[in-house]
Design goal:
alpha+beta, Immunoglobulin-like, 2 domains, four-stranded antiparallel sheet, 2 helices, 15 strands, about 20% helix, elongated, Carboxypeptidase regulatory-like domain-containing protein
């Protein structure tokens, strides 16, 4: 009777294994996620940031260079859904929720995070890297240069806009016109700007004429010999 019971147990295990292999609901897809975690204001790396899944299970942590590599396992059929959370004392926790299509096989992604310091006014962020995806810190660091340039500009623009209603800005030697909802890079600070199709002024004169909050629309204009950009304002 003992040998018969063991045989039954072994047969049950074999059948269960075969069922698991054939059941599409149990097919495992792994997301290989790597990247950097930095301070959202200074863009300097943050070490010892704990990365967890939606159930609070620890997936990994950043090293001294702010680098991380984690694996997220998905066994559900259809679209891939997951959530990760980043935590570090002195910083505001950051959650990333993703809902992708029915991807097949394993997926490799580079994702950069900026954590908001508890004493900073710069919000946290996440940015995917769309370049060539290779494993390792070197590739991730190279891809971060694009993110760093973008965030450095955004931080500089935010600082420039504080306590004023200016429309024209010169940031790092580049000219911009700015509304409350967006910005446009100019060719030069003397570009001709049409205001409501009634007045044409040089870009660097706009701060004497308009308030940023009055702008309803801004757009480049091609094929016009009189002005390069158009602003619609109250």
């Amino acid at each position: 009777m003992v040998y018969k019971s063991i045989s039954v147990i072994l047969l049950t295990i074999i059948i269960s294994t075969i069922t698991f292999a054939k059941n599409p609901l149990m097919e495992q897809r792994i997301i290989h996620l790597s990247g950097l975690v930095v301070d959202s204001r200074t863009l300097q790396p943050i070490d010892s940031v704990i990365i967890s899944d939606e159930n609070g299970n620890r997936l990994g942590a950043t090293d001294k260079a702010g680098y991380y590599e984690v694996k997220i396992k998905n066994i559900d059929k259809g679209s891939i859904k997951f959530q990760i959370e980043l935590k570090k004392d002195g910083f505001v926790s950051f959650r990333q929720r993703e809902n992708w299509g029915d991807l097949k096989g394993d997926t490799r992604l580079v994702l950069y995070f900026g954590l908001k310091s508890s004493v900073s006014d710069v919000a946290g962020f996440s940015e995917f890297y769309s370049g060539k995806l290779n494993n390792g810190y070197k590739n991730v660091l190279e891809g971060f240069s694009e993110v760093k340039n973008k965030k450095s500009f955004e931080n500089a623009l935010k600082a420039a806009k504080e306590n004023n209603e200016n429309v024209f800005f010169n940031i790092a030697g580049m000219a911009f016109i700015v509304s409350d909802t967006g910005w446009i890079k100019l060719y030069s600070e003397t570009d001709a700007i049409s205001i409501n199709g009634k007045k044409i002024v040089k870009a660097n004169m706009l701060n004497n004429i308009l308030k940023r909050s009055s702008i309803k629309k801004m757009t480049p204009v091609n094929g016009n010999n009189q002005y390069n950009f158009y602003i619609e304002a109250n």
